[in-house]
């Protein structure tokens, strides 16, 4: 457990001593500002529905960029050898890195809480729905970070890891929109696989254990695949 | 302290390390030499628990690298060929992180980091970003990292490669000062380094063990055994000596000296011959090959 914290601390330090963290926070806040403005102007509602929906999509592109360096860079720089010859388990290394990405996501999402405060000042937003929406987004982040880490474990090249992450994760978004093109038997299966389906209830203010289970399983599967990939690399 | 038992490592059909076996006793400095691509790094990675062997095993500091990798990792300090640095971190932050990986925290961490930085000559460099350091200083940071937890066994993969001559001397002195306190395995292809630092040598070539033992034993084991003779009529004697059954080749060395290469000791026969023919024999000695000669004859000159 302490080694998880050691890794988490190191990853956050690297995020914040490089321009990386600031670029991500800045870009994400800028995007959410644009989405917030458009949402308010288009709908005239005191809600964050448009902003949060668009942010969820942009996370698919932003988070693989955040996670791409994790294993790709360790392997390229040889520091993976340092970690693997230290008395720490591969699992705590992966969990530490995943938590560090999730902390970054929390900060990014935390920054956007500015917008509901603006709504509160001028209107009467439903805080319960805002709360469940943010919970849903955080679960999306957890899953996407795990997927991004998996992509990063596959290669020594950061850019390949980033692009690979997007290619890997985008289908989980798109399958929700293409259901009308496939046979009726497949439709419910694809809909169940789609992230959007599971995020939707959160944005309506519903916390369904089935949806939480989806995101937990999503995260677990990709962290497990990361583990297996890194483990098998030693044998090749 | 380190016992390598018939280690083999295969990458698909390619055999990187083939049935290598050697031991290192406590406090020894072992030179692990071989041409590039001989399997030195692979062997070291197996000893550190980074890579699993395809067959065989190794006992490091009393633990099997395969069955108890965590115990081994706790007791081994390892400097890979390129120092494993996080370019974004300062020297101090980096070393504290390495300490934490090994459970060294708080006040003890500050103390140990200070100690190793003094030891490797990094005093005052704590706040420098490791990415901005020169190769020599990166190497020192890498060494500091390997020493941090007072490991029983130190494994150093080409610790002086890419350093300038002054830095090479510095790193060698440092490694020399570690002998006795730590058991050191040092891989290199710079033979002078081995002669300067190591009591024992293991030579591998194309994955196979070529020679092992003390420095003298390895030099003895080289097939190029030769004898140096000094006499007054060298030119005339050369032909006569060359005709002896024991002698393979005779080469003039100038100044009345001859180099005689022979598989078995020809000294008695040469002395008899000189007595018969009336040559004045001034010197007749067995010359121990240098480590370089031994190395070249062991791995072949093409390497």
Written overview of the protein:
The complex is a heterodimer of chains A (236) and B (303). Chain A has twelve helices and no strands. Chain A is an all-alpha fold and 236 residues long. Chain A has one domain. The longest helix of chain A has 27 residues, at 127-153. Chain B is α/β, with parallel strands linked by helices and 303 residues long. Chain B has two domains: 2-221, P-loop containing nucleotide triphosphate hydrolases (Rossmann fold), CATH 3.40.50.300; 226-299, Alpha-Beta Plaits, CATH 3.30.70. Chain B is built from eleven helices and 14 strands. Chain B has helices at 40-47, 69-75, 91-101, 106-119, 135-147, 165-178, 191-197, 215-221, 234-242, 267-277, 291-299, and strands at residues 2-11, 14-24, 29-33, 55-60, 63-64, 76-79, 153-157, 183-188, 200-205, 208-214, 226-231, 249-254, 257-261, 281-287. In chain B, helix 3 (91-101) packs across helix 4 (106-119), helix 4 crosses helix 5 and helix 8 crosses helix 11 (291-299). The longest helix of chain B is centred in the middle third of the chain and has 14 residues, at 106-119. Chain B starts with a strand and ends with a helix. The chains are: A mainly alpha (236), B alpha/beta (303). Chains A and B meet through helix 1 and helix 5 of A and helix 2 and helix 3 of B.
Outline the secondary-structure elements.
The complex is a heterodimer of chains A (236) and B (303).
Chain A: H1 2-17, H2 20-43, H3 49-67, H4 69-77, H5 79-84, H6 90-111, H7 114-122, H8 127-153, H9 158-174, H10 186-193, H11 195-203, H12 209-235
Helix pairs in contact in A: 1-6, 2-3, 2-6, 3-8, 3-9, 4-9, 6-8, 6-12, 8-9, 8-11, 8-12, 11-12
Chain B: E1 2-11, E2 14-24, E3 29-33, H1 40-47, E4 55-60, E5 63-64, H2 69-75, E6 76-79, H3 91-101, H4 106-119, H5 135-147, E7 153-157, H6 165-178, E8 183-188, H7 191-197, E9 200-205, E10 208-214, H8 215-221, E11 226-231, H9 234-242, E12 249-254, E13 257-261, H10 267-277, E14 281-287, H11 291-299
Parallel strand pairs in B: 3-8, 3-9, 6-7, 7-8
Antiparallel strand pairs in B: 1-2, 1-4, 4-5, 9-10, 11-13, 11-14, 12-13
Helix pairs in contact in B: 3-4, 4-5, 8-11
């Amino acid at each position: 457990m302490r080694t998880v914290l050691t890794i988490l601390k190191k990853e956050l330090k690297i995020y914040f001593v490089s321009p990386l963290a600031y670029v991500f926070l800045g870009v994400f806040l800028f995007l959410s500002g644009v989405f917030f403005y458009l949402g308010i102007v288009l709908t005239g509602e005191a809600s964050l529905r448009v902003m949060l929906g668009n942010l969820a999509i942009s996370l698919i592109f932003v988070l693989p960029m955040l996670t791409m360096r994790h294993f790709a860079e360790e392997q390229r720089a040889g520091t993976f050898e340092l970690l693997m010859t230290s008395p720490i388990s591969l699992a705590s290394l992966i969990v530490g890195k995943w938590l560090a990405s999730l902390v970054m996501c929390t900060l990014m999402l935390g920054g956007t809480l500015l917008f509901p405060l603006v709504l509160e000042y001028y209107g009467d937003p439903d805080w319960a729905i805002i709360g469940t929406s943010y919970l849903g987004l955080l679960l999306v982040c957890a899953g996407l970070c795990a997927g991004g880490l998996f992509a990063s474990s596959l290669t020594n090249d950061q850019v390949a890891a980033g692009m690979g992450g997007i290619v890997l994760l985008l289908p989980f978004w798109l399958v929700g929109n293409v259901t009308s093109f496939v046979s009726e038997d497949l439709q419910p299966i694809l809909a169940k696989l789609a992230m959007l389906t599971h995020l939707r209830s959160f944005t309506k203010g519903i916390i369904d254990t089935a949806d939480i289970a989806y995101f937990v399983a999503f995260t677990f599967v990709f962290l497990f695949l990361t583990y297996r990939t890194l483990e098998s690399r030693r044998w090749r | 302290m380190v016992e390598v038992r018939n280690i083999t490592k295969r990458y698909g059909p390619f055999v990187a390390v083939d049935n290598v076996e050697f031991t290192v006793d406590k406090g020894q400095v072992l030179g692990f030499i071989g041409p590039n691509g001989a399997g030195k790094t692979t062997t070291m990675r197996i000893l550190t628990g980074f890579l699993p062997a395809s067959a065989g095993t190794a006992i490091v500091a009393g633990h099997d690298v395969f069955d108890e990798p965590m115990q081994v990792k706790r007791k081994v300090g390892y400097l890979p060929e390129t120092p494993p640095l996080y370019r974004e971190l300062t020297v101090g932050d980096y070393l504290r992180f390495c300490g934490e990986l090994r459970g060294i925290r708080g006040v003890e961490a500050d103390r140990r980091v200070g100690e190793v930085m003094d030891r490797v000559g990094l005093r005052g460099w704590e706040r420098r970003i490791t990415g901005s350091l020169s190769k020599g200083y990166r190497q020192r940071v890498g060494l500091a990292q390997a020493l941090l937890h007072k490991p029983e066994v130190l494994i150093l993969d080409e610790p002086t490669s890419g350093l300038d001559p002054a830095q090479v001397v510095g790193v060698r002195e440092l490694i020399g000062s570690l002998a006795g306190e730590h058991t050191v395995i040092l891989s290199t292809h710079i033979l002078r380094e081995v002669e300067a630092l190591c009591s024992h040598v293991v030579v591998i070539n194309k994955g196979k063990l070529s020679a092992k033992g003390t420095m003298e034993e390895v030099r003895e084991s080289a097939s190029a055994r030769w004898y140096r003779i000094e006499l007054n009529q060298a030119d005339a004697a050369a032909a006569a000596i060359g005709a002896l059954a024991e002698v393979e080749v005779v080469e003039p060395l100038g100044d009345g000296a001859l180099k005689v290469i022979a598989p078995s000791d020809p000294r008695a026969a040469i002395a008899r011959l000189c007595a018969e023919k009336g040559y004045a024999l001034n010197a007749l000695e067995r010359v121990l090959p240098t480590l370089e000669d031994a190395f070249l004859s062991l791995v072949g000159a093409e390497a």
